[in-house]
Amino acid sequence: MAIRLLRPKPLITVAGVPHYPITSPLLSFTVKVSRAGGLRNRVSAVNMATESIAIPAKIIDSHLHVWASPEEAADRYPYFPGQEPSLNGHVDFLLQCMEEASVDGALIVQPINHKFDHSLVTSVLNKYPSKFVGCCLANPEEDGTGLKQLEQLILKDGYRAVRFNPYLWPANQKMTNEVGNALFSMAGKLGVPVGFMCMKGLNLHISEIQELCTQFPSTVVLLDHLGFCKPPM
User: Fold this and answer.
1) pLDDT one-digit tens code per residue, 213-231
2) Deepest in the core among 58, 64, 111, 223, taking most CB within 10 A?
3) What is the pTM of this model?
4) Which domains does the chain have, with CATH numbers?
5) What is the pLDDT of residues 24-37, one digit of tens each?
6) For the chain, what is the total number of helices (H) and then of strands (E)?
7) Contact 110, 100 (CB under 8 A)
């Protein structure tokens, strides 16, 4: 009896985490099985094989932010007015925390502290490509400049997802307006998921999300922070 163990494909892949496209077997051997103890021998052989090829797991933080230090903000990466952070969140501090906690990588979501200026996060992604991937922030301004920006962030800068914050849409407009439809459609065409951050509760925006998903079913959707659902107390 020949037993062949193939290297499994990962369910989730992150930049910097190795892919395993190899189709040749990691292990191939033959076991002669007697009729009397056939099943027991087969199980033992498989157990022995699987125990010998354990692959260490990677620990990935799926949602965090970085922003410029005060010195970086004064020099190259200014904060958006009114969104100056009160806490330390520069990349060196993040790397220190990751090392202490044995975290291998992370998805960095564009912080509100820099709003639609992605230059700081992009610089971090470029400097540490084996550790981080990025989620950009959709710009829903009525002039449509966010469409070109999204295309560039995905295709040129390598962001892997985009966040929709309904409270950044123009006053009295919904995520299902013309710009929102175009942004959501583009995300699907570019193959990146859309994460919705409904800070005041998912029920306030679920109809918009359903409408977008119905019109553009190829776009994958994430619900940030578990939809900000508030369980009964």
Assistant:
1) 999 999 999 999 988 887 7
2) 111
3) 0.76
4) 2-51 (no CATH), 60-228 (3.20.20.140)
5) 333 333 444 445 55
6) 7, 8
7) no
Q: What are the strands, taking DSSP E only, across 9-71? A: 27-30, 60-64
Token pair listed for 17: 């985490």
Q: 147 and 186 in contact (C-beta within 8 Å)?
A: yes
Helix, coil or strand: residue 223: strand
Q: What is the number of residues in the chain?
A: 233
**Which long-range CB contacts under 8 A does 17-24 form with residues at least 24 apart?**
17/58, 17/60, 17/104, 17/105
| R_g (Cα) of the chain, nearest Å | 23
What single letter denotes the amino acid at residue 83?
A: Q
Ordered alpha helix ranges (H), 53-200: 70-75, 91-101, 119-127, 145-155, 178-190
Under DSSP, the state recorded for 71 is H
Give the Cα separation of 190 and 116 in Å (integer).
19
